[in-house]
Amino acid sequence: PAELTSLLLVMLYDLQDRKFQAREIFDEEEPVAEVQKIEGYLYSFRTKLAAALARCRIKHDALSVEYILPETIRKQEQRASALPLCVWINTFKISLQDVFRDLKKKGFTRVETVSDFDYYTYCVDQHCHDVLFFPSSLKEELLNLDLFADCKLLLQ
């Protein structure tokens, strides 16, 4: 149906991003029938989709899917990837002071504002004291911290 076109496009991009591999399903996820149906269709045609994508890339002489996108969308993607990462502290599991102490042990330095960011730095939101900002370049490293694994910090 036409009302599911946007969902289809998002799922297709996600499938391509996962290199046409099946999505991991976690126990806490509640299945949505429409999503599962579309995912089944896309996955059953994954070889044809991958081949069509490869032909499109060759036709447009594109190094990756991103190069097929219009220039305006690519610029928006670049700006979005440069935005700081927003992280919520799960105060049901850990106190603010314990988070600050753990981050300091891991080599992070607290700065006053986002404009003061250097590599291993973070700042506290001035309006919500349980929200932290990190440089976007640290995403992979942050997600490997125990604080994230234990759901004490949650990436927005």
TrEMBL record:
GO terms for molecular function: methyltransferase activity. It comes from Balaeniceps rex (Shoebill). This is NSUN7 methyltransferase. Transmembrane segments: none annotated. The keyword Methyltransferase applies. The gene is Nsun7. Keywords: Methyltransferase, Transferase. Pfam families: NSUN5_fdxn-like (PF21148). GO terms for biological process: methylation. Residues 86-156 form the NOL1/NOP2/NSUN 5/7 ferredoxin-like domain. PANTHER family: METHYLTRANSFERASE NSUN7-RELATED (PTHR14663).
